[in-house]
Each structure stands twice: as C-alpha cells, then as structure tokens.
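Example 3.2
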Amino acid sequence: MAKKGNRIQVILECMEQKKSGISGCYRYITTKNKKNTPNRIELKKYNPILKKYTIHKEIK
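Structure, written as tokens:
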C-alpha cells in the first residue's frame, strides 16, 4: 500500500522564455514537501532552448 506523505509533485515552468515570446515552454517536474514550503517555489534550472540557467516557477 502506498505511503501517505507530505510530498507532492509540482511543475516548474521557465518564466524568462514565457516573457520573451519564444514558442514552446520548458518545464521540469519535481517534488516538494507541502508542510515545509506551502508557498510556490522558484528554482534556477537549465533551459536548453535558451542555453542558459533561468528562473523556473511553480505552476498550478
């Protein structure tokens, strides 16, 4: 039986690419502990389309 926990899956989307208007979007899937971090998270991740590290924000 699956263990019930506080970890949930979240989707991180590149905000810099979204603002620039370049077609497509780059996303990462990760997990977070909803008890420790109830707010939306922001992480610096690599975007291969822009070929640099950018800020990715949690969506939905």
